[in-house]
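Reproducibility note. Readers wishing to regenerate the assembly model reported in the main text can use the exact inputs given here. Chain order matters: entities are listed in the order in which they were concatenated for prediction.
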Amino acid sequence: MAWLNAVVQGVLLGGLYALFAAGLSLMFGVMRFVNIAHGDFIVVAAYMILGFVVTLGWNPALGVMATVLLLGAAGYLNQRFILNRVLGKDILPPILVTFGMSIIIQNGLLQLFSADSRKLPAGGLETASFDVVQGVAVGLLPFLMFLTAIAVIGLLQFVFYRTALGRLLRATADDPEIVPLMGGNTAHIFAVATMLASLVVGVAGIWLAMKTNFDPAAGPSRLLFAFEAVIIGGLGNIWGTLIGGIVLGVAQTLGAQIDAGYQILAGHLAFLAVLVFRPTGLMPRLAR
Amino acid sequence: MTKLLETVALEAFYGDFQALFGIDFAIDPGETVAIIGANGAGKSTFLRAITGLRPTAGQRVSFDGVPIAGMPPDRIHSLGIAMVPEGRRLFPSLSVEENLLIGAAGGRKGPWSLQRVYALFPDLVAKRRNPGTALSGGQQQMVAIGRALMSNPRLVLCDEISLGLAPKVIKDIYRALPVIRAEGAAIVVVEQDVGQALAAADRVVCFMEGRVSLAGTPASLSRDAIAAAYFGIEEAA
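Running the prediction on these inputs yields the following structure tokens for the assembly.
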């Protein structure tokens, strides 16, 4: 029963990893852009919600709205006025620029909030739980987190495949040179893609803040989990990202079941196994 | 009357390589002009310069009296210039219908709609849910033309629309041009098939090595003159 419990907890943890990964996957899918500062933006969102709700004492709903919308706006502006300048055939400049942003953000947060690790109190949510079967209790917080991940990914799927904006984003992913000949402004489309990704980053940061302790240096390891979830699931497949997150989460909780020290290692091993045996990921992008 | 499109001494470069050497070109509203010439004569470059894909900043290109040189391609498109790019360039992850709808993303009003495009190319109706790239070459070309029409352009630029297609299919494609003209759009077709160009166009312009080597109505041009302008045989020919 302990093992079953570990699997269930792992699946729920996978929801958080899918939230980490969705934005990364979206930006890579639309513009082949690898954002090294992705994890740091998640941590920024975590500090934001902490600041709004705890320091300023705002209503949590207002804090959530403000965090998500501010992240989205920042994402749009960042892409439109900074990141678009390094977008091109060469994949190295975006990596260097976002690596620089990562360092700036970590040191900025350290300056502002000190190195103490923080956590957002979630009221009664943290301790509330319900039994799925005898001996397998599911915490309300991880359960809601998992539902959020499904909702976010379902929403992204809807936007991409059922709306005019999604059509334009997919067309841009296919052939950015031709899109302007159809009247599309690629600088704006790229910025909108990053805005969507950043909205998800905001949501991910809020759950991170409630789920675990975080500190200014927490970003890179979130980025690593996000990368692993994207690769395990298959690049460019949005539901694959959820599967990738779940595989990573389950591997980690099973590892922890053997020995608490194996938690992170088990996740990396699962990732390596996928790279070795199925390098295109579990759910590769459909053939063109 | 204001020319619909006019270029004066248009030049274009790829790095140090000069592709166009002073092209003077004009087209009236509703006119169909064919640009012929050998590979590398600069025909496609000329179209790309008009659409803004090749930089033209500081030069003289005007569309309906508005200077458009140096404008970004999406703004030029919004004024009413649509392109059917060489090689069709359909979006592989979009269905046929989505490819057509992308053409209408600019929101220009006019006679063309999904229904009208399907009426023009009935073959596409049954394939509307298929990925654009799952179609035959001729059908893909129809999608590419339909996609351009969906923006309700006043000028349609067609780059090598018969390339690699069977003669029967080429006939089907060219049958669409009079319908497009009837809706008031001017058309520029870049064409390697001289016979096809002479049959379809009001006026023919021949490019050679980045310059206009011959221009005139199909009736006024002798086969010899065209051959000379096309291949660069002695001027006297």
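We highlight two features of this model. The radius of gyration of chain A is 19 Å. Residues 5 and 136 of chain A are 5 Å apart (CA to CA).
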